[in-house]
Amino acid sequence: MTTELENEIPSTLPTVVIVGRPNVGKSTLFNRFMGSQVAIVEDQPGITRDRFEREVEWTGKKFNLVDTGGWMPGGSELDVKVSRQVEEAAKSASLVLFVVDTAIGVTDDDEQIGLWLRRLACPVIVVSNKIDSDKREADRWDFLKLGFGDPVPVSALHGRKSGDLLDMILEIVEAPDVVEEVVLPRGVSGIPRVSIVGRPNVGKSTLFNRLVGEDRSITHDMAGTTRDAIDTEVDTPDGPIVFVDTAGMRRKSQVDESAEYYSFVRALRAVDESDVALLVIDAQEGITNQDQRLAERIDAAGCPVIVVLNKWETLDADGRERIDTEMTRKLYFIGDAPVLKLSALTGKGVHRLLPILQECIADYHKRVPTKDVNRVIAEAQQKQPAGAGARVLYALQGANDPPTFTLFVNRELPQHYLRYLERSIREKFEFGSTPIKLRVRKRSD
């Protein structure tokens, strides 16, 4: 599959990249500019690992802001991968904000980052963070030795002089004026969103990188590598799709770190905002209780689900038969959800995903004419009446995303009969595995 990678943010915007060693306040500064708790912040190094991109608006101008992980090229294998992500982000930067910790002073790592940044062909501002008062401002001059001019004093945590820094950014980069945009509904004229969810370390980020065509998310044989939900827009033969890599979701009772808790919350939010969810399951381990809970959570969100059995090539004939049996027994409640057996690592079987995605997205946004809805409901009632004089007087599709049908009735219908009507609608209009909602209104209402 050939894909062209595009940023979620339009390419016409200048890109400002925040870099620095771990735990100097990069994500805090990112959140300060955004005006909300967008990036996960925790008082320990290594929380941010992937690149995290958002638009920033200031005084009628816009630019693209990128938060990155701590630059530590001489550390562990994971540290090296994080550092590589930082370097890739800085290569395309219009401006780099080099964040340093004023309370600690210049470190060897700061000097190493300075050497690397001097090889880039873009301007650099040294942001002297954690200056909470005028008395501390003199401490910033130690960072002149880094060779990037006067350090800019700020307190990302308290917002001190962050506005001055934003003004300075706009003086350097050519940011376009803000233009009022028409917000388009997802999946109609907008871009459908596909979230990749699952337990930790089942291959979500590997599949994400395979789909977007580059190492956009950091992958590592350690649970919990991905912290934030990472969005990337990909051009496909059928139009653009935004793929969202999410943090591995464990049971809430097992989430004990605050950073992991916020990752969990954002993963759930990504599911709620998605048009389709890919539930990635490790075929080697089989379908666990947590996989069942995640499937229930996706089903409750009302978006279609595609089950991805990853690492399928590692199973023998008995293992594959076992997984097929577990699918029928443990995930029966998601009905006819498509099941894709693939290897994210080698790419085998991944090419079958896009056609299935397009079909699910089309079903999710499908609109049925009112006359056709009433015809199907009338045929279903004639074939099998509800009994006790109860009947549907009129029906229409009131919404999509997911398809939602309103039934106007003369009296309350039994639950089993509503399921019968739902099945009739699903089969007649070929909604596949897309969840359908029925709303019932009595004539007296």
Short summary of the structure?
By secondary structure, this protein is an alpha/beta fold. The protein has helices spanning 26-34, 77-91, 108-117, 162-172, 204-212, 258-272, 289-301, 317-330, 353-364, 370-383, 415-429; strands spanning 4-6, 15-19, 52-58, 61-67, 95-101, 124-129, 152-153, 193-198, 230-236, 239-245, 276-282, 305-310, 339-341, 392-399, 404-409, 437-442.
Topology (elements, then pairings):
Elements: E1 4-6, E2 15-19, H1 26-34, E3 52-58, E4 61-67, H2 77-91, E5 95-101, H3 108-117, E6 124-129, E7 152-153, H4 162-172, E8 193-198, H5 204-212, E9 230-236, E10 239-245, H6 258-272, E11 276-282, H7 289-301, E12 305-310, H8 317-330, E13 339-341, H9 353-364, H10 370-383, E14 392-399, E15 404-409, H11 415-429, E16 437-442
Parallel strand pairs: 2-4, 2-5, 5-6, 6-7, 8-10, 8-11, 11-12, 12-13, 15-16
Antiparallel strand pairs: 1-9, 3-4, 9-10, 14-15
Helix pairs in contact: 10-11
